[in-house]
Design a protein that fits this description.
20 helices; mainly alpha; Growth Hormone, Chain: A; globular
Length: 446
């Protein structure tokens, strides 16, 4: 096997377990709630503690990998992730489960951006890199779509704690393969650490998510102050944590917005759908997981097709398909009830799976394109962070609507609006005028 392909597969293996862990927990939420006596808020934090911490540390991890060595940070992340997974499996209370999920997310934050950085620096030819990024995006989408299916099967057969056992053998295998086949690399001149920017990012994401889940306006005000602090402080640094100049590129800014909207739709979908299937319809976890097989199947089929279209025709067509599919699927689910025919549900899941399969490759490619290769860890981290932010916000908003006793139709129409935003931003970010705003990598790095 060619060395480059071997490195890509190893990196994708780590991405697969991280993406899988984001969604596999969702189908286990009712079982976790019963076993640990957790309410809706506790279940929200079981999901969002992982995504918020990961999102908060992604850019820091990417920057540190560029500085001290990508292989070293990558292996450390695999070790932390695997150990934390074992701790999650034995958590006696929901509070400790949330704490162990935060540790797990710390390890996960060292994997996604670092692996993307390794890929970017391994595939130096632009066409090869685009194909590798397409595979990367497809694997991430497939792993997240397969989570509910695999989780439902395992939870019904063994119990919810077993979903965390799955990570350990895969993590150990990834560690051994990394040590054997991936060479060490680092940036020629790494960016300086930005402690103020890092603290502001943590405060922003934590307070925003907490404020939405607990519906606390004072905490949301703190998140607004953190945004203001970032906008004022970061441009003054020579090497900021968040390179705001990237956002002058309309395709890049649109890709980040699409990431947030798409993954908010996906995160909200998983949360609401789990409560609906196992609550309103009374399905067992394995039945709920199997019901989403059409979604996973369509994601598997659509993801590589999307990557090929992006390589040949650009991101516009896949983004339009994704936005339309998200909107239609969520609009269909706004009409469901306890007695809705299963065939109607399956059609909606198929359409949603098409949307999720098509969205990953174009946003990944657009977000990474035009960035300096020497800062690949930070660049990839911005793109990955937007996904986790969207996922966390989707769960937070969906849970807040549930606990506020808002009509189920309104909950799904809210997600449909996010799907429509994917369509709108996809159209805006792929026009000729928008593409003209994308600077050359050298200009960005200057």
């Amino acid at each position: 096997m060619e060395a480059k392909v071997r490195i890509l597969l190893i990196c994708c293996l780590s991405l697969f377990i991280v993406g899988l862990d984001i969604t596999v927990v969702n189908v286990a939420l009712p079982a976790i709630g019963r076993d640990l006596d957790a309410g809706v808020s506790g279940l929200q934090w079981t999901v969002d503690a992982y995504t918020v911490v990961m999102a908060s540390l992604l850019m820091f991890s990417g920057s540190m990998a560029d500085r001290i060595g990508r292989k070293r940070v990558f292996v450390a992340g695999l070790v932390v992730f695997s150990v934390a997974s074992l701790l999650c499996s034995v958590a006696p209370t929901v509070g400790l489960l949330v704490a162990f999920r935060m540790l797990q997310a710390t390890g996960a934050s060292m994997l996604n951006p670092v692996a993307m950085s390794i890929i970017t620096n391994t595939f130096t030819d632009p066409r090869e890199r685009a194909q590798a990024v397409g595979v990367w995006g497809a694997v991430f989408g497939v792993s997240m779509a397969l989570g509910p299916v695999l989780g439902g099967t395992v939870v019904s057969a063994i119990g919810w704690r077993s979903i965390f056992w799955l990570n350990v053998p895969v993590g150990v295998a990834a560690i051994l393969l990394t040590l054997r086949f991936i060479p060490e690399s680092r940036a020629p001149r790494a960016r300086r650490f930005d402690p103020v920017g890092q603290v502001l990012v943590v405060v922003l994401l934590a307070t925003l998510t907490f404020g939405i889940i607990e519906r606390t306006w004072g905490v949301l005000a703190v998140s607004a102050l953190a945004v203001a602090g970032l906008l004022r402080y970061e441009p003054r640094r020579d090497e900021p944590l968040i390179e705001l100049r990237f956002f002058r590129s309309v395709p890049f800014a649109s890709a980040i917005g699409i990431s947030v909207a798409a993954f908010a739709t996906f995160g909200g979908f998983l949360f609401l759908n789990t409560l609906y299937l196992q609550g309103a319809r009374g399905l067992e976890p394995v039945e709920a997981g199997l019901a989403t097989v059409p979604l996973a199947l369509m994601t598997v089929l659509a993801a590589p097709l999307s990557g090929r279209i992006v390589g040949r025709r650009g991101p516009r067509i896949p983004l339009v398909i994704a936005g339309v599919s998200f909107t239609i699927a969520c609009a269909m689910l706004a009409q469901v009830g306890p007695a809705t025919p299963i065939a109607q549900l399956l059609v909606a899941y198929v359409i949603f799976g098409v949307g999720f399969g098509f969205v990953n490759a174009p946003i990944t490619n657009a977000a990474v394109s035009g960035m300096p290769r020497a800062q690949a860890g930070v660049a990839a981290a911005i793109a990955t962070t937007s996904r986790q932010v969207g996922q966390a916000l989707g769960v937070a908003v969906a849970g807040a609507l549930v606990t506020s006793h808002v009509a189920a139709s309104v909950q799904w129409w809210t997600l449909a609006a996010c799907g429509a935003l994917v369509l709108l931003l996809g159209l805006i970010g792929t026009t000729g005028r928008a593409l003209a705003t994308a600077p050359a990598p050298e200009a960005v790095a200057a």
